[in-house]
Amino acid sequence: MKLKDKIALITGSTSGIGAGIAESFAKEGCHLVINGFGNREDIEKQRQYLESLSGATVMYEDADLAVPEDIDKMFGHIQTQFGGVDMVVNNAGIQFVSPIEDFPVQKWDQILAINLSASFHVIRHCIPYMKAQKFGRIINIASAHALTASPYKSAYVAAKHAIAGLTKTVALEVAEFGITVNAIAPAYVWTPLVEKQIPDTMKARNLTREQVIHEVMLKAQPTKKFVRIEEIANMALFLTGELACSITGSILSIDGGWTAQ
């Protein structure tokens, strides 16, 4: 396995897309650092399961990515255990749906902290190690909302557009060091994050649950299907490989044709 014994940090990996990516990397024999919130017993079961798949070390870090000091501590632990990371997937994200005039300032700050600033802090920590070894893979999980917009998601859309800019900028800075930086931009994926959006969207748009799913979420996706977690995990895995070494600074859409319109 080409990724055997590589070290990968995947944020927001205790559920949803991040958990799927962690499982794919574990099957390749990677050492893993998983991160996210949830029930500690469930997370420990996940950690043990991933370790059984990988035959390697799987660490869990409970860092709150909205707090830069927590990210500093997490990287201190990673430094002690592994010395650094070879691959990073910035996946952690939250969502809130509201008209701009009612959008809580606290929610705006929180979404930008987790969906944008956390990626900056993670990247700044991992780049020195990657530069020293002349190899690194940074994958930012963006969204179709990195390329287009939807109403009532001002903070999320702003953060994801900024992730696209961050991806391109860092890619240019590290291109001569064997480091690639890309973003995957999926459309709606059926995850806990998406499911939690439904009540807020029902309220904001005065729609039923079924109307939110079919007239809001899937309306712009020509395939009329939710993207599968496995599709995103497979793309992330490809981007870590040697055959993807010339793909950098790219925003790679997995959106059922949404942004082709």
Sheet with most strands = 7 strands, parallel
Low-confidence parts lasting 5 or more residues at pLDDT below 50? none
How much helix, percentage-wise, in residues?
Answer: 40-55%
Q: How is the CATH topology named? A: Rossmann fold
Structural class: alpha/beta
Into how many domains do the coordinates divide?
A: 1
Number of E-state strands: 7
End-to-end separation in angstroms reads 39 Å
CATH class: Alpha Beta
Query: What is the CATH architecture annotation?
Result: 3-Layer(aba) Sandwich
Word description of this protein:
48% of the residues lie in helices and 13% in strands. It is an alpha/beta fold and 261 residues long. It has a single domain, classed as Rossmann fold (3-Layer(aba) Sandwich). Helix 1 runs parallel beside helix 2. It is globular, with a radius of gyration of 18 Å. The protein starts with 6 loop residues before the first strand and ends in a 7-residue tail after the last strand. The model has no long low-confidence stretch (mean pLDDT 96).
